[in-house]
Amino acid sequence: MAANSVNVKTENTNTARSIGTRRGRLSDQIARGIFFVCAVLVVVIIFGVFVFLGINGLQMFKDPAARNFFTSSSWDPSADSPSYGALGFILGSVVTTLLSIIIVAPIGFGMALYMTEMAPRWVNALLRPLLEVFTGVPSVVIGFLGLVVLVPWIANIAAPIAPSAANAGNGWAAATLILVIMILPTVVSVSIDALRAVPDSVREASLALGSTRWQMMKDAVLPAAATGLGTAIVLGMTRAIGEALAVSMVLGGDIHLPAKLLTPSVLFQPNINITNAIVLYFSEASGTERNGYFMLGFVLLIISFLFICVSRYIASRSVYK
Amino acid sequence: MEKQSQRPAYLAQNEVEINPLNKTQVENLPEVSKEAQHMGSFDPTKTLKTDATTKIDVQHTNFFYGAKQALYDVSLPIRDRQVTALIGPSGCGKSTFLRTLNRMNDLVPGARVEGLANFDGFNIYDPKTDVVLLRQRIGMVFQRANTFPKSIFENVAYGLKVQGKPQNVIKERVEKSLHGAALWDEVKDRLNTSALGLSGGQQQRLCIARALAVEPEVLLMDEPCSALDPIATLKIEEMITELVKDYTIVIVTHNMQQASRVSHFTGFFLSGKLVEVASTADIFEHPHHKETEDYISGRFG
Amino acid sequence: MEKQSQRPAYLAQNEVEINPLNKTQVENLPEVSKEAQHMGSFDPTKTLKTDATTKIDVQHTNFFYGAKQALYDVSLPIRDRQVTALIGPSGCGKSTFLRTLNRMNDLVPGARVEGLANFDGFNIYDPKTDVVLLRQRIGMVFQRANTFPKSIFENVAYGLKVQGKPQNVIKERVEKSLHGAALWDEVKDRLNTSALGLSGGQQQRLCIARALAVEPEVLLMDEPCSALDPIATLKIEEMITELVKDYTIVIVTHNMQQASRVSHFTGFFLSGKLVEVASTADIFEHPHHKETEDYISGRFG
Amino acid sequence: MSAQQQISTSVESDERQRLLSLERLTQRLHLKNNIASGILALITLLGALLFILIVIKVLWDGIPYLINPDFYGSTGTGTVGQQIFNTLYLLILSEIILVPIALAAAIYLVEYARQGPLVTVIHFAAETLAGVPSLVLGLFGYLVFATVLHLGLTRLTGTLTLLCLNFPVALRLFEDALTSVAREQREGGLALGSTKWHMIRTVVLPSSLPGIITGIVLSAGKVIAEAAALIFTMGSSNPSNVYTLNPMISTDNLTIHIWYLKTVGAGTIPDNVANAVSAGSAALLIIILLVINIGSRSIGRLIQRKVMAA
Amino acid sequence: GSSTGGSTPSTSTPTVAAKTSSINCATGNLATGGSTALGPLVQDAAKAYQAACSGATITTQLTGSGAGLKGAHDGSLNIGSSDNFVSLTKNPEYKDLTDNQVAVVIFSVIISKDVTGVTNLTSAQIKDIYTGKVTNWKQVGGPDLAITVISRASGSGTRNTFEKYILATPETISGANHITAKSSGDVASNVGSKSGAIAYDTIDFATKHSLTTVSIDGAAPTQDNVKTNTYKFWNIEHMYTKGDATGLAKSFIDYVKSADAASLRQKDGFMDLSAVSADAIAAKTPAAAK
Ligand SMILES: Nc1ncnc2c1ncn2[C@@H]1O[C@H](COP(=O)(O)OP(=O)(O)OP(=O)(O)O)[C@@H](O)[C@H]1O
Ligand SMILES: Nc1ncnc2c1ncn2[C@@H]1O[C@H](COP(=O)(O)OP(=O)(O)OP(=O)(O)O)[C@@H](O)[C@H]1O
Ligand SMILES: [Mg+2]
Ligand SMILES: [Mg+2]
Ligand SMILES: O=P([O-])([O-])[O-]
After folding, report:
1. Does residue C183 contact residue C206 with C-beta atoms inside 8 Å?
2. What is the pLDDT averaged over residues C176-192?
3. Cβ–Cβ of B16/C299 closer than 8 Å?
4. C99 part of a folded domain
């Protein structure tokens, strides 16, 4: 008898419970569906970016004049027989990116090493927030400073070797320095993370063997952080190659690559790169030329995609996560 | 388990407690008993030299992590070419003490040491002591193998390269140290493969080889076997009894059987104080302090 | 320590080992002995009902974490309004088994269960089982108190709000559950303060109160006392013996004394297999398997 | 006896010899160490100086305008009242769209999705999207939102483009915030018979609030700083009445304005005015970013304390 | 769907007093853009229009004539302004654009202050400069100073007018001494700051920046010379719409052309279409557009 009544009571509760939870389950299902759509949205967007830029960009090759896109550096869409050689723009982006990373890597690694391994606490307390602010600093602010400070300064210094004293401040040199300022904080921050990821036991192991701190950094910490530092380089380059407005403000070039590429003076004259071309000419271009700028954007997209793949690959080989 | 009878009575009595071996595991591994027989072949009491000279004479050491005191007036002589074991419950300051001896605690921000540790005529704690030189003379092996992500050879050669030794010396010493750490046979064919591919026990011995390569006079070991399985543990213990012919060894251990198996002297720490230090046999058989007795009989810790 | 004599002989014999109490700590806390006297006031053998109906009938359960099998053909009846203890060395699958019972393992990616667990006429493992309803009927208490960062009241009321209970019912039930978890007196004046301000033991009891509030039929507890000090442990054990009058309880424990103190039935797991299940007294006094005997006599684990 | 003594002395002198050479060696090592340390310190000093000088330069040039109330007006040249309003408008509109979507996506990834190819693909997509240059996203936004969807150059087009830009960033930060909530907390909720979504709302979201706030604030920083993605999608000029919530008009913001004044708009107002406005806006932006960076952490901590002391 | 704001439509001849009431107000959002030469007039007119008609929101993207046409064509702009007629040979897809002529613009060749002694250049000399044959001012009668050549991008209506009526050939200048300015204003500001610079820009920007203009082939850039087409470097300003202008777009274009906006046109240096001789207009109008 007693057992029976207990059973009945239990059943009642269960019915009440299941009614209560059914509503919950429905909202659970709906919520789940919405979340799923939002998560997939990210895939849709990147897919859309590839598809839309790809389709519009590749359409330029319907125009036979565009066949020299990857083989010529002569970009002259308004000529009687238009030419769409983009090598000049690509070269500009590659040169400024490589130059800036060559400058940034030693400085960035040096700063990161100093900040993680040697610096007194207050130095980090001061520099970390500063670096973070600069990681997100608007590129136009740097571009503005570049225009009012850097360009006149370079013009002064480089005037004697530049082909045109009036335009000596503009060009790859200014763009490279702008990029250095733009990517140094990123490279330092990622490098610091990489160095921090090296466990202290590695440092202890080195020091306990009677190494100096410098030997510890050079022989134990840096090799152990190699993959992370590699990621820092690649991320820096991703940022550099895509940087648009700041670079465009100081480049000063249009569509022409300088005639003499293999002299130092090439750095001190108005010059070109991919982003500058897009910023300057995209909005008024039509037809094949317009698709050409989409194609340039697509090239940038592919390059940054490759960079991301490389950084993922490097990161996947890291010993310490 | 016929070995038990050879051990002091107090060990047998607490056998179940302080034996870290997982029986099931041991049963799956028939090699153990073979190795275990080997284990009895050395007996620290036979190599005990109660008159050994003092290699490091630690006196009245106080240690602070910031405001927190971790060592209270510790005085302890470390005898030349003898194994000194440090035991005590978790957090009693064993590691802290060990790490004062090669100034490893310098790395801890806010750490501060007071007192005297006379090593070859100078005070280890002196701020002016050249810690690089000190650490070349006093090597250290850590609780968890901290192998570098480099090849086996590079790991052992590390300290030698630090000293800028020529290549031929490095080659020879690497082999010698790997022999010394009883690892040569296992790795001789793969010296250039990554050290991270070794098992835990092998990595720990690699770290020992690495420490031996620079030919220190003193070797500090902080629970070198705590992360290892019984077989690896036995290998390392055996190795220690070999090494002590040439090196002064200080070992921290949680495992009292290990202390009794390998050490000549034992110091017992409790809450940052050195309760008692004496020959290992004395400590385990005739402890002078109630706390020591309680601890070794397993009533706490 | 006069309590020892009341315990079975095998416990006294291994007292040093399986007693988790840290002696130094206990000595600092004079209240213990007072509480400890209380401890003897219940004896599960007195409330043991060998003929209790089976509340959950687990049969031939296999469990896999991805490719790795964690449970092998486990069959075990869980008796109504009795305490069933699950013991075994670390990693043997106790938690895994417990978590199959309220489908908590659903959260582990790649986890898969096979077999039958008959609960009130349906199979717990059935994919069609409404896990939300199931978990309202089979509550769970975890090893580490997972109090929500909310007020004490909100914590206990959580499950009731889930069910959309009216405010007055919630109020009443919160108080009742806090009484049930022996926490009411300690928190009645601060119900609206953050639960994170409670001590570890109080938080654990709060979690128990939270589980009780939804009036489950079965209460699963995974090492509920392992992070607690002796006094808090005793309080919870006492509470369990009270709760079992109304609830079916399954408790995982590392502490064999605890199993013997609170449980009516004990299952011994080893490497994912249920070696033996029987009344607690039988398991501890007349184990049928060599492994069980080895384990409870402390030879491994 | 004497032989023994001799041996011991020779051993001793050997030992001395070894020690002496070791000492010489370490002297050399110390020297190298000091040189290397000096170089590292110098590099850091120069790097730090570069950044500090930039900040000082920007503030020095800009603050005289910032403390002038006319600077924030909206009539006449050299005022940025409109741009500040547009920046805020864009910030709020894009956060309103971004936060629910990114949070929902993060919830899906952290709470619902099973580890598998889909999650890998989503993460890879997010990482790739985060690496796409903002100018390229600007082209994409122009193509899809302005042209294909016929939204034209409007605030809405700009906001949608910013969504693409910020989505991966916010997603990552929100995921971090959610994963920082202990598994035990989730299990606690579920074990009480709550449905997953209810558990997330009542347990996970409140606990991860500090991290979510940090994510919002940091993505806000990106919205404020962005210009390249907007010049093709939102435009670079203002109607007479920008003080409207109308999303279908084209406006600029502070960063676009700086760019505009020094490029396309150069010469439309006197150079010294353009420089003054740019300097003032740059200083304002730097100050906002400093505040955001320092603030996001303290806000997070504050919320944390609030949540924990419920 | 045009609607007439609050003001009364009026067909009477506007007077100064009835200035605002004569605007046929429409409401909505209007995106205009394109020619930077026409920019000042569009911006001023937009401001005046919005002041008079509260329901209208007008923005002006100054991105060049080419961008204006493209924006009008692809719909991102409602009105695309251009200094040129659409060239259907070059952009056949722009046949959907409707021409609304609003004013006449006078361009000029300008040189920087340090180029002393040059007041006139022949179109041949200008051509030599813009094709890179002449690189120093002394070759054209000026000081010994390198010429910094400033151009506009190829979509610029100013540049197209310059190429068509002065050079009679496309520019081919490139190299370190050459830069491309981003807008009419940018041209003026560059000529103001670079030594030895030469450029082409509207007379309005030249005046506002007090830059030196030169006569071309002996004709000075004056309204009188334009009226008779003696001075060739001028053009008709257009506001193109996709299809016929309606609603706010129509109302705004009408306003820009209207007598109401005459003072604005004058202020920004533009001439009324009616002020220029029919022959001159015909000379600028391509056959296809007639
Ligand atoms: N870096 C540190 N900062 C502050 N306190 C520390 C630090 N390292 C250790 N301690 C404290 O110092 C005391 C001694 O620690 P130590 O590591 O020496 O103990 P131990 O005997 O080695 O313990 P175990 O057996 O657990 O390794 C402990 O209370 C510990 O909490
Ligand atoms: N999420 C998981 N994924 C894969 N394997 C797991 C997972 N959780 C547990 N395991 C494995 O399953 C086996 C059983 O684990 P379980 O946690 O059930 O053991 P346990 O008896 O509760 O141990 P303990 O006493 O340490 O809590 C162990 O080998 C463990 O490593
Ligand atoms: Mg230790
Ligand atoms: Mg468990
Ligand atoms: O007026 P434009 O900018 O096209 O020269």
Report:
1. yes
2. 89
3. yes
4. yes
In this complex, whether B and E touch, counting 3 or more CB pairs under 8 angstroms, is no
pTM of the predicted model, to two decimals? 0.85
Q: Where are the beta strands (DSSP E) in chain A?
A: 75-76, 83-84
Among the partner residues E61, E193, E205, nearest to D235 by beta-carbon distance: E61
Which chains does chain B touch, 3 or more C-beta pairs < 8 A?
Answer: A, C, D
Domain hosting residue D131, numbered range: 76-309
Any domain includes C32: no
Asked if residue D27 and residue D138 are part of one domain, the reply reads no
- Say which DSSP state E219 is in: B
Q: Is C106 in the pocket of ligand 2 (CB under 6 A)?
A: no
Query: Cβ of D22 under 8 Å from any chain B Cβ?
Result: yes
Asked whether residue D85 falls in the same domain as residue D35, the answer is: no
With contact defined as beta carbons under 8 Å apart, do D220 and D91 qualify?
yes
Distance B154 CA to ligand 3 centre (A): 28
Q: Determine the CATH number of domain A66-316.
A: 1.10.3720.10
Quote the CA–CA distance of A156 and D302 in Å, as a whole number.
51
Residue pLDDT, tens place only, B10-60: 333 333 333 333 333 333 333 333 333 334 446 777 788 888 889 999 999
What count of residues does chain C have?
301
**Same domain membership, residue D290 and residue D165:** yes
Report how many domains make up chain B: 1
pLDDT band at A249 (very low <50, low <70, confident <90, very high): very high
Structure confidence at residue B88 (pLDDT)? 86
pLDDT of residue A4: 40
Angle formed at CA A278 by CA A275 and CA A282, multiple of 5 degrees: 170
Interface of D with A in 96-115 (CB under 8 A): 100-102, 104-109, 111-113
Q: What is the CATH number of the domain that holds B112?
A: 3.40.50.300
Residues D217 and D83 occupy one common structural domain: yes
Instruction: Return the ∠ at Cα D223 (arms to D217 and D227), rounded to 5°.
Output: 155
Verify that D4 and D27 share a domain, yes or no. yes
Lowest mean pLDDT among C123-132, D8-17, D118-127: D8-17
Cα–Cα nearest to D25, from B123, A210, B217: A210
What is the residue extent of each domain of chain A? Answer: 2-61, 66-316
Residues 6+ apart with CB under 8 A from C85: C250, C251, C252, C253, C258, C259, C262, C263, C265, C266, C267, C280
- Give the Å distance between the CA of A2 and the centre of ligand 1: 60
CB pairs under 8 A between A and D: 261
Specify the pLDDT at position E75: 87
Respond yes or no on whether ipTM tops 0.90.
no
Q: What is the mean pLDDT of residues B114-142?
A: 92
Range of the domain at C76: 54-297
Q: Chains C, D: CB contacts under 8 A, how many? A: 81
Tally the domains of chain D.
2
The number of the ligand nearest the C-alpha atom of B96 reads: 1
At position B188, the amino acid (one-letter code) is: K
Please give the C-alpha separations between residue E10 and each of E15, E252, E257, in angstroms, as whole numbers. Answer: 11, 15, 15
A74: left (phi over 0), alpha (psi -120 to 50) or beta: beta
pLDDT tens digit string along D44-54? 999 999 999 99
Nearest-Cα distance to chain A for B81, in Å, is 20
In a domain, C21, yes or no: no
| Burial group, residue A266, by CB count within 10 angstroms (0-12, 13-18, 19+) | buried
**B22 domain-assigned:** no
